[in-house]
Structure formats: structure tokens, C-alpha cells
Design a protein that fits this description.
The protein is α+β, with helices and mostly antiparallel strands. The chain has helices spanning about 5-30, 130-140, and strands spanning about 40-50, 60-75, 80-95, 105-115, 150-155, 175-185, 190, 205. The chain is built from 2 helices and 8 strands; from the N terminus they run αββββαββββ.
Length: about 220
């Protein structure tokens, strides 16, 4: 009645269904773990320079360099199903857009980012074999370190400069720095910052700096 191929297909279909159900249960367990992220960020030094922001830039333009201090507690985002956490900081501001009749256009530029891995995925980080061996040994059979996900940066230099298609950023008002995160699980969907509370998951507490102004272009010192 059933040939070998049909039997193989039935077995494969059964195990595929089991794997899908187990994966769905694992992903659903994330909703049972409270999330209470918080962050405090402020700009510490802001400069606007005219030059080539990148080595491949074809022309000179204004770009902003923003140093900042950050204290963040994202440890509640780590569970046994967390693979890694992507954290980044953006500078947000609005400008009038002539194409829309002068209506405000929201601008957002990433100035800094980092990846925080969980103990079970430390091997994905760019580390040496000796350090990796120590990390695996220290993480074996232990829960996630409560300090993992905590950041304390003072006067941090940005990884990226701020530019604009117009080539002008000097004297821009109401610029704010905002902390973002992206949770990447082993099984399940990616999740980003929340703008509202959802069950046990709370939105980011604070996480936005006070508004500040980008200064005028820094004048070159004369000789």
C-alpha cells in the first residue's frame, strides 16, 4: 500500500511538524520574561566641521561629530533564548523639506553601535581561542550574567559622522540622541524598541537626550 518513498515523506513531515511546534513554544517563552530596559544619554561635545566625512567622498561638506555619555541597563533583554543584542544610537532632528511645501522632514542618523552577545553565542564574537575557551568554561551551566547588557560610556567618540544630502548641518536646532536596541533570538522573531508597554514587556525608560543645537562650522585656526 505504501512504498518506501511515501513512508519517508510521512516520517519527514512528522518530524517537521514536531520541530515547528517545539520552535513555536520556545519563541513563545520570550513573552513570559519581563523586559524593563532603561537608558540615560546626553551629548558631551558637539562639533561641525567642513571637509570630506569619508575617504570616498567626492566633495567637501559639513558634517557633525557628536561625543556622548551613555548609561544603559538592557540586562532584562537577555534570556536563555537570546542570541545577541544589537544596540545603536541615533541623532534625530527635523528640517523643512521644499519638496513637500516646507513641511518638516524627520532625519535620523546612526552615530554609534555595538553588539552584545549572550554567553551561548560568545563564539560569534571576534575573540581569540584562549579567551573563547575561558568564556565557554565560565558560562557552562550558569545563567546569564546580570551585568551583561549594562553599558557605561563616558565621553564616547562616535563611530559615524552626521551628514545631510544638502551638505549643510551647521546651526541645526532641536537635535536629540536616542538609544535603540534589536533583540535577536535563537528561535523566534526579531524585536525592536517599543513605543508602548505590552504585557510584561515595557517600553524603554528615558533613552532620549535633551535637545541641543549643532554649532556653526568650526573655524580653522590661522597661522
Amino acid at each position: 500500500m505504501y512504498n518506501s518513498l511515501t513512508r519517508i515523506q510521512n516520517v519527514f513531515g512528522f518530524f517537521t511538524t514536531v520541530a515547528f511546534v517545539v520552535g513555536a513554544i520556545i519563541a513563545a517563552t520570550d513573552f513570559t520574561a519581563p523586559r524593563t530596559p532603561s537608558a540615560t544619554i546626553k551629548a558631551t561635545n558637539v562639533q561641525v566641521v567642513k571637509g570630506r566625512p569619508h575617504y570616498y567622498s567626492s566633495k567637501k561638506e559639513e558634517y557633525a561629530v557628536i561625543k556622548f555619555s551613555l548609561d544603559a541597563d538592557l540586562s532584562s533583554l537577555f534570556t536563555w533564548n537570546t542570541k545577541q543584542l544589537f544596540v545603536y544610537v541615533t541623532a534625530d532632528w527635523t528640517t523643512a523639506d521644499a519638496r513637500t511645501g516646507g513641511a518638516n522632514q524627520t532625519n535620523a542618523a546612526v552615530i554609534w553601535d555595538t553588539i552584545i552577545t549572550s554567553p551561548s553565542s560568545d563564539h560569534l564574537a571576534n575573540i581569540g581561542p584562549a579567551t573563547l575557551k575561558k568564556l565557554r568554561k565560565s558560562a557552562a551551566g550558569k545563567p546569564v550574567d546580570p551585568n551583561r547588557g549594562k553599558l557605561s560610556l563616558k565621553n564616547q567618540r562616535p563611530k559615524y559622522q552626521i551628514t545631510h544630502p544638502t551638505g549643510k548641518v551647521a546651526n541645526t536646532d532641536d537635535v536629540t540622541l536616542r538609544v535603540h536596541y534589536n533583540v535577536q533570538p535563537w528561535v523566534g522573531m526579531l524585536t525592536w524598541n517599543q513605543d508602548f508597554d505590552f504585557a510584561l514587556w515595557k517600553k524603554m525608560a528615558r533613552g532620549v537626550s535633551k535637545a541641543f543645537q549643532l554649532p556653526a562650522v568650526k573655524a580653522k585656526s590661522g597661522k
